[in-house]
Structures are given as structure tokens and as C-alpha cells.
Protein: Putrescine aminotransferase
Organism: Breoghania corrubedonensis
Amino acid sequence: MNVKSNIYPTKALQEADAAHHLHPFTEHRTLNAEGSRIITHAEGVWLTDSEGKRILDGMAGLWCTQIGHGRHEVAEAVYKQMQELEYYNLFFKTSHPPAVALAEKLAELTPPQFNHVFFAGSGSEANDTVFRMVRYYWDLMGRPEKKTIIGRWNGYHGSTLAGTSLGGMKGMHGQGDLPVPGVHHIAQPYWFGEGGDMDEDAFGLWAANELARAIDELGEDKVAAFIAEPIQGAGGVIIPPDTYWPAVKKILDERDILFVADEVITGFGRTGEWFGSTYYGIEPDLMPIAKGLSSGYLPIGGVMVADKVADVVINKGGEFYHGYTYSGHPACCAAALANLAILEEEKIVERVKNDIGPYLQKRWKALGEHPLVGDARMVGMMGALELVPVKGDRTKTFANEGSVGTMARDYSFENGLVMRAVRDSLILSPPLVLSHEEADELARIAEKTLDDTY
Ligand code: PLP
């Protein structure tokens, strides 16, 4: 198959793809009949497919492409690094300049308790590191019985054994007899779907208190950590009620367990702050990062480690038998540094907070007037539209859960906008460089999509 020319034989590509390629999170049978969508180019917020159709990338790839597609500065930084040192590892007391520079930059950009990073290749790997590091920490503290990690139902922390186990996706658990032992899940703060007859604030307090109840039930002396995304992304952009994080923070302050804020989606400006933890005023001990760290230009992740944990790992521990061949890969570090430079120089995070964020939120919330929409929510530039059969009644759901959401997602793509379906909601997380005109276009296509689905 020659894919070098600019003429893409869509059908032949689709057939070869279906014949030889097992995709992540895909029902393969459908590929034979429908074929995959082949994306060939991208620039700014726009994707182009193999038939020349332009589509607005309302998911920033997979929540990654903060700076938009096609920035030559990143490609050039990677090219330069590849010519100097294409690869070397960081094991056994070695380092290289891009890893050092990125570690230093991350210490500067992240909240003050963080001065160390452990590099990984992805968000999933970062959460494998979390899983091992929290247990290692408690072992070093002389508390080896503190092993259980508490996660939340419908949370997403990746697709490896640790990531799947810490996450609370029941469908994923069902495939492969997961979670692994030592993980406990509690309720998510999803008021729209699970709030029953409670008002939002009361539900937020109830959901927070589930953490206290779980710790008390399991025994504080057995619990190592609580892991949560500041805003659940893949679970459907679940923005917690205002009461939730202050109450969780109080519970954590009163108990001796580690707090892990998974910022793989909420990091690097998505909420209008550099990190979701800052947005909510929460203070994690460990903070997995990935995606927006390099805007997805090359794969890189890591775990920010607060001084409280790093001091123990460094000063009490010996060698931590953990690491990845591609931890802090030089080319990936160069891509991340170039991406962070663009975020800073172009004041993209500030722009999300003060300009394009509020602008998009206004357009998005206006979609809440549509008869099909029960809730239109957005923080920074991540949002969801809950589709409902009966306007004003959030207890009624469509008969075949997911089918209306999937239909709407497919209409959206046909109309020229990528949105993702989670149950019967549509979710959005566009590149942070979206212009006002593009936000108008996005809202226009989303509205047409709702009309088509209705
Ligand atoms: N954590 C969160 C919050 C995520 O949303 C994701 C991916 O969507 C991951 C971890 C896993 O990251 P990766 O797909 O890079 O392994």
C-alpha cells in the first residue's frame, strides 16, 4: 500500500485496515461494513480525511492537542533533537539534557508541592507508576498494610492492568476479571445522572462523604490512596457539584492517605488554569500527566511527585525497581518542551480562562435550550450535552442507552464536527487555540446535529 502520495485510495485503505489492524476501543465487525475514517492531514483545529472532507476536531484528537495541529515549531524541535540524540535511556544514573530541561520546567509550572517528575510514555503508564509508587511509599514509611487504593465508578485512568483497575469502567472490568485485588470503588459525583431527588449541592456532599465512609469501612490503616480526575473526562465530562471538592479536601486533610489527582485530561490549560487541581484548590500528592504535556505530538506522560512522597522515596528508599525503556525519551521531551513554550508564549491558558473559554461556554450553554438537551455544561474548554427524551426530567432516559448518543455523534461527524458519545451525551474538548469564528462554527454544527437527531 503506497500511502505516500497525496491521493488516498479510501476504499483500499479501509479494506487493508479492516483486514490487518486491530484498533483500540473499536467494534471490529463494523469496520468490514462501514470502514474506518481515514484522517490524512490536520492543521489548527481542522482535520482532513482521505476524501478531502474538512472536519472540526472537537475532541483535540483524544483530549490532547492543546496547541492545535500542525505546529512546525514542534516538528523542528523534534528533528533537531533527533539529530543530536535520538534516544538514550534514563536508567542506572544516566540522564540527558531534554529530560533535565523538561523536569525543571514541570517543577516550575506545576503547583508548589511538586519538584520531581517520574517520566512515563503515556497516561496509562503514569498510573501504573502511581499504583506501584503509593505502595512503595507506605512500605518505606513502615506501613506495608496500607495497600488499598480507592477510585471512583466511571473514572478513567487508562487501559493497562493498573489503569483499568483504578478506573471504574464496568465494561472494561468485565473483560479480563478486573480490577486487580486491592482496589475499591466509590460513587462518582454525577448529579445529572445519579443525583435522584437530591439537589446538586446536597448530592455533592453525599458523594464526597462516600469517600469518608469507604475509608472508615476499609480501615484508614489499610488505605494507601484515593485517585480521582478533577473532572471525569472519558466518563462523560462529569463536572462535580461545587460542594464536592471542598468536602473531599476536608476528608483527606483529616486522614492519613495519599491523594492522586489524575490530570491527564485536566492538565495544561483545559480548565482555564494550568491544572484542574488549581481550578478546584485541591492539593494532590501525586499527579499523573500526559496528553496536553506534548499536545499529543509525541507520546509522553509522567507522574508529578510531591515533596512529601519524593523525600521518602529518595531518602528512605533504595532503588525503586520501576521504569520504562521510553521514560523521558529525548524526542518526546523535546516535543513537550516546544509545546509548553507555545502554551506560555501565546498565553493560551490565560486565553482559555478569560477569552475563548467564556466565549465557547456561552455558545455551548445556549445549546441547552434545545428540546433534546437536558444539561449543557462546560468548564474551561471541556463540556457535555446530556440528551434526554423528556426535557426537564433528568430521571427519564432513552430506551436503548447509548444509541441516541451514537447517532448524534455520527450526524455530527457528517456535519463536520468531531464530538464523542458517552452514553446518551455528547462531549467536547477542542484545541485550546480555537478562534471565535471557529467557536461559532462549532456551535452552529452542534445545533444542526441536535436538530438532525431530534
Ligand atoms: N487518565 C485519564 C484521566 C485519561 O483520560 C486517560 C486517557 O484518556 C488516561 C489516564 C490514559 O492515558 P493514555 O491513553 O495516554 O494511556
Remarks:
- The mean pLDDT is 96.
- Residues 122-124, 127, 156-158, 163, 229, 233-234, 262, 264-265, 290, 301 surround pyridoxal-5'-phosphate (CB under 6 Å).
- The domain at 37-67+349-453 is CATH 3.90.1150.10 (Aspartate Aminotransferase, domain 1).
- The longest strand covers residues 114-120.
